[in-house]
Automatic annotation (TrEMBL):
UniProt-listed Pfam families: COX5B
MF terms (GO), sorted A to Z: metal ion binding
Protein's organism: Megalops atlanticus (Tarpon)
Upper taxonomic lineage: Eukaryota, Metazoa, Chordata, Craniata, Vertebrata
Keyword line: Acetylation, Membrane, Metal-binding, Mitochondrion, Mitochondrion inner membrane, Transit peptide, Zinc
Matching CDD domains: Cyt_c_Oxidase_Vb
Signal sequence, start to end: none
Protein name as catalogued: Cytochrome c oxidase subunit 5B, mitochondrial
In-chain residues carrying the UniProt-annotated modification N6-acetyllysine: 65, 83, 118
UniProt key word Membrane: yes
Superkingdom of the source species: Eukaryota
Length: 126
């Protein structure tokens, strides 16, 4: 008798188990899914990601833009002060660098090749 009751309750339990929906593992999904890098970034990483998303490059991580070096399109040199030392490799395969100080104001020319350089103010992001 006891074994019959035990069997009946086991069958009921199995029927209830089959009828209930299968509970899938929901690790990380309860809060809307796995967070992206931008959602979980903090501090400096978050600042850099936000700046790159807006198209700016505050830490000069991207390849610098190329300029013609002419008077109309001078090489732009960012600086946090009113002057900066610039090294010009006048020709592509030169092994020596021509160094000169670039000051704020009008574009200056390289003393060797004559390429134009212009100093622009730059603010550090922090
Ligand atoms: Zn030069």
């Amino acid at each position: 008798m006891a074994s019959r009751l035990l069997l009946r309750s086991a069958v009921r339990a199995a029927a209830v188990y089959r009828a209930s929906p299968v509970i899938a593992l929901t690790r990380g999904m309860a809060a809307g899914g796995i967070p992206t890098d931008q959602e979980q970034a903090t501090g400096m990483e978050k600042l850099v990601m936000h700046a790159l998303k807006q198209g700016s490059d505050p830490y000069s991580m991207l390849k610098p833009k190329e300029y013609a070096g002419s008077k109309q399109d001078p090489h732009v040199v960012p600086s946090i002060t009113n002057k900066r030392i610039v090294g010009c490799i006048c020709e592509e395969d030169n092994t020596s660098v021509v160094w000169f100080w670039l000051h704020e104001g009008e574009p200056q020319r390289c003393p060797s090749c004559g390429a134009h350089y212009k100093l622009v103010p730059h603010q550090l992001p922090h």
